[in-house]
Amino acid sequence: MKIRCVSSRVGRFPLCQGQAFFKWVALLAVVGLFAVAGLLFAQKAAHQKQVAQLQEQHQQLQQEKEQLEQLRGAVQELERLRLDNAELVKLRGEVAALRPLQKQQQQLQTEIQQLRGRLQQAQQAGVEVAALRDQNQQLQQNQQAQIEAQVKAQTGACINNLKAIEGAKGVWAVELKKTAADVPTDAEIFGPDKYINQKPACQAGGVYTLGPVQAKPACNIPGHVLP
Predict the structure, then answer these.
(1) What is the DSSP string of 91-157?
(2) Residue 82 vs residues 27, 69, 89, 120, 206: alpha-carbon distances, Å
């Protein structure tokens, strides 16, 4: 290829046609590079803008997610509070239903305490009654012993009286030569000038019967008998 050189008005050196072509090509390449660079810069700016938008959207989504989590937490808290409120209402109902039972329990406790007091009083009274019963039995035993002693004394005194009457009646029968079938009178046995100064009396209130000489004098009280 032959290169033709022509004089240039612009510079001092003549320009060849091939050199001008390359210059135009280089210029176009530079312009193309600038265009490409501008396009790439524009694409990069757009990409950065998209990235920024995406980041902003991501942040918004993150914030919305956090808000959603907070809302979920709030909803769960509300649900828990609702359940707690329902449980509280239920408990209030149960407490309201238990209040009469509580009053009845208090009344029962009061009655139980009163019954315990009465039981203690009854036990104390039982102890006192047992003591009085023992005392009464002791008194009865003492009285019985006294009565038995008195009866024994009365019986002994009465038997002594019967022995005295029997002796007087025997002396009467010997002195007056009475038979075994003869029966003395009181006037013949008792008196200041008789065998016994005064007719004895049974301490138990018995009545003496002199009887015949062959029989022993008797008292109508059981047990008051001469041996």
Answers:
(1) HHHHHHHHHHHHHHHHHHHHHHHHHHHHHHHHHHHHHHHHHHHHHHHHHHHHHHHHHHHHHHHHHHH
(2) 78, 19, 10, 54, 106
Strand partners, 16: 5
Contact (CB, 8 A) for 150 and 197: no
34 near 20, Cβ under 8 Å? no
pLDDT tens column, 116-173: 898 889 888 889 888 988 888 898 899 888 888 999 999 999 999 999 999 999 999 9
Backbone angles phi, psi at 86, to 5 degrees: -65, -40
Which sequence spans correspond to the domains of the chain?
A: 158-219
For the stretch 38-89, pLDDT in tens is 778 777 778 888 888 888 888 888 888 888 888 888 888 888 888 888 887 8
Within 8 A by CB and 6+ apart from 213, the residues are 169, 170, 173, 178, 179, 180, 181, 182, 183, 184
Which secondary structure element, helix H or strand E, spans residue 218, and what is its range?
strand 218-219
Distance CA 23, CA 11 (A): 14
How many CA atoms, within 13 angstroms, populate the side-chain half-sphere of residue 183?
Answer: 6
Q: φ, ψ for residue 225 (rounded to 5)?
A: -135, 140
The whole-angstrom separation of Cα 196 and Cα 170 is 12
